[in-house]
Specification:
heterodimer, A: 409 residues, alpha+beta, 6-stranded mixed β-barrel, 16 helices, B: mainly beta, outer membrane lipoprotein receptor (LolB), chain A, 13-stranded antiparallel beta sheet, 13 strands, globular
Chain lengths: 409, 249
């Protein structure tokens, strides 16, 4: 232990109460930061996962231009063989082909304009959470069955239940009239009113037949293991599809630009709050260190008269701050970790959260996500700002005149 | 369908007084008055054009009065029998493939009619322009020996209309040369132009009309009329749901 460090440690405990108060402020704000940042990361992860899992997926193969202007004729030829070859290429089952069309959907009593999705029943299960959310009836198993799966809100609006007929009327791929009668096979309840109101799925074989699509579809959804792989997968697939240059591979943030923007907006407003917290802590450190330097003016004067260099004294003050901040960091991060770990297991909710959560496609309990980054980010920033705050007291020492300082009161 | 009738049933025999002051509302009104209470039968071809494909459909249409129209597709075979019935701003559509009549809900009225650039609303509501708009004569000019009137029509505050204004160009023999649809930001969205004017069924009518979106010049829908007969004596039973389902003509 160097002499500076030993002196810093002893100096700190000359005023136990003052040191503990400052360290306490750090512990408290570190605790808050660890918890809030972990919760934020956790909720973003959930927001992305749940939104993408409901429908979009991590990546989609589409006809160039389809994402900007979804037109029936911007379609992919031979979509099912293509989806098969992507499955083989990636050696994964989390890939499914889809077709999308707009049609008027009518029960005996009511009609609504609806987005209809043609899906591969065997693979849709792997890329979307909807098949698992069937509350009544079942998901289809036959790719050519004249069956439909609709959301609970739509079922209520149309006043239909399992086994009832729906009439679909729309325009086919070749501009001809598309008309068909389908049986309601299942009703899903995703909890998101928008999806439950406006989404309906048909088996892709029947869909292609109904809308005169022949072998075409509109997108192939691909899910990787986790989001960090998405860019790699995108390159891989784009490379695989290079001889079909009418096709593009799009990542989730292009498919769902609103999602990323919502996260960025939330992050920006959160960092404003954190900034206030961090600056308050920095000022309390500044206050403590300035006080402790000023009250030791005589002591420093004596030390300088004995030949101690101002750099050494500055280093001492900085070391005191570093030790104090280090204590705050260690204890704060530790308690933050404990609290967050506990909540990441039992979950967390507060009154009124459900509605907000539903809006962002979140479940009604939140689970903070624990990682080195989410634990250390806030405390490290507080540590750095505390050191910055002690620069001013340390620099003051360079302007100290030993003779005058020794006579100071 | 009414806009077609408005265009098609325009008379030669009562041209506007060439020099008198023209009241724009009256100009539209009198043009409409000529077909109001009148019935017609027509055969036409609708061509939907897109940059990469094109499709034609033949159809027949019967009208009676201002608010009743029946349209039935005759060609191509695959689509024959599909039809729509419009009555008092309500619209029903019939698909023989599923043998069902479905009432088009109001939420679908702004959707495309039979896959064309015409919306269901264009088809069923075009006579609202007389009462629900304020009309102003913008310009009078001479062209090919005809007087041409350009009228700006702005919907009333409370009118259930999506347009900010419409600009109609009417010839002195009541042929509607052009109808422009402007949105509420005063940007031209689409326009309907008469491409060919000739004598059909004893009257001078616009026999080819094209609806074109402003920012997609390669996307248009064209109606060309082969046969039109005026003053037909259609029975009321023609304009019923059972007639929509079971053609008797």
């Amino acid at each position: 232990m160097s002499i500076t460090l030993r002196m810093a440690w002893r100096n700190l405990w000359r005023h136990k109460r003052r040191t503990w108060l400052t360290v306490g402020a750090m512990i408290f704000s570190n605790l808050i930061l660890v918890f809030a940042i972990s919760l934020q990361f956790g909720s973003y992860q959930m927001m992305i996962d749940n939104t993408l899992k409901a429908y979009t997926g991590h990546l989609q193969i589409q006809h160039d231009g389809y994402n900007d202007e979804p037109k029936m004729r911007s379609s992919i030829k031979g979509i099912i063989p293509l989806a098969d070859s992507v499955r083989q290429h990636l050696n994964s089952d989390h890939i499914a082909a889809r077709g999308v069309a707009f049609a008027m959907t009518s029960s005996k009593e009511r009609s609504y304009g609806l987005q209809l999705i043609g899906v591969e029943p065997d693979f849709e299960v792997n890329v979307s959470s909807l098949p698992g959310l069937i509350k009544q009836g079942k998901y289809f198993s036959d790719s050519n069955a004249a069956e439909i799966v609709i959301g609970s809100v739509l079922a209520r609006n149309l006043r239909v239940t399992i086994g009832d007929e729906l009439t679909l009327l729309g325009s086919g791929h070749d501009g001809s009239f598309a008309a068909g009668i389908v049986i309601v096979a299942g009703i899903f309840e995703s909890g998101t009113a928008d999806i439950d109101r406006s989404m309906a799925q048909l088996p892709i074989g029947y869909f292609q037949d109904l809308f005169g699509m022949e072998d075409r579809g509109h997108n192939i959804v691909i899910n990787g293991h986790d989001l960090s792989q998405v860019s790699l997968l995108q390159h891989d697939l784009q490379n695989m599809l290079r001889d079909r240059n009418e096709l593009v591979v799009l990542e989730w943030d292009v498919l769902q630009p609103g999602l990323k923007q919502a996260i960025q907006a939330d992050l920006a407003s959160a960092w404003f709050m954190y900034g206030v917290l961090i600056i308050l802590v920095a000022f309390s450190v500044l206050n403590t260190q300035l006080m402790s330097v000023l009250e030791r003016t005589r002591e420093f004067g004596v030390m300088m008269a004995l030949g101690v260099k101002p750099t050494r004294l500055g280093a001492l003050v900085m070391t005191e701050t570093a030790v104090m901040s280090g204590l705050g960091l260690a204890i704060g991060a530790f308690f933050g970790l404990m609290l967050t770990y506990y909540l990441s297991i039992v979950g967390f909710s507060y009154p009124g959260m459900e509605e907000m959560a539903a809006q962002f496609n979140l479940p009604d309990r939140m689970y903070p996500s624990l990682s080195v980054l989410s634990i250390m980010l806030g405390p490290s920033i507080i540590f750095i700002f505390s050191l910055l705050a002690s620069i001013y007291p340390a620099v003051r020492l360079f302007f100290l005149q030993p003779v005058i300082a020794m006579r100071a009161v | 369908m009414k806009f077609l009738i408005l265009l098609l049933s325009i008379y030669l025999y009562s041209p506007l007084a060439s020099s008198a002051e023209v009241d724009p509302r009256e100009l539209i009104q009198s043009a409409m008055d000529h077909y109001r209470g009148l019935s017609s039968y027509s055969e036409m071809t609708m061509t939907i054009h897109r940059p990469d494909w094109q499709r034609s459909m033949s159809m027949r249409s019967w009208t009676k009065g201002e608010k009743t129209t029946l349209v039935r597709v005759t060609e191509p075979k695959k689509d024959a029998g599909n039809g729509t019935l419009t009555k008092d701003n309500n619209m029903w559509t019939y698909a023989p493939k599923v043998n069902r009549i479905i009432k088009v809900p109001s939420s679908m009225m702004s959707q495309s009619w039979m896959g064309s650039d015409f919306s269901n609303k264009d088809i069923s509501k075009s006579t609202d322009i007389i009462d629900q708009y304020d009309h102003k004569l913008l310009e009078t000019r001479e062209q090919d020996g005809h007087k041409i009137y350009v009228i700006e029509s702005i919907p009333h505050e409370d009118a259930a209309v999506v347009w900010g204004k419409e600009v109609l160009t009417v010839r002195d023999d009541y042929v509607l040369i052009e109808q422009q649809f402007w949105d509420q930001d005063n940007i031209l969205v689409k326009s309907m132009k008469a491409l060919e004017i000739k004598e059909l069924g004893g009257r001078t009518v616009a026999s080819i009309i094209r609806m074109n979106k402003k920012d997609e010049p390669e996307e248009w829908t064209q109606m060309s009329v082969q046969v039109i007969k005026f003053d037909q004596d259609h029975p009321d039973s023609l304009f019923t749901l059972s007639s929509l389902r079971n053609p008797r003509q």
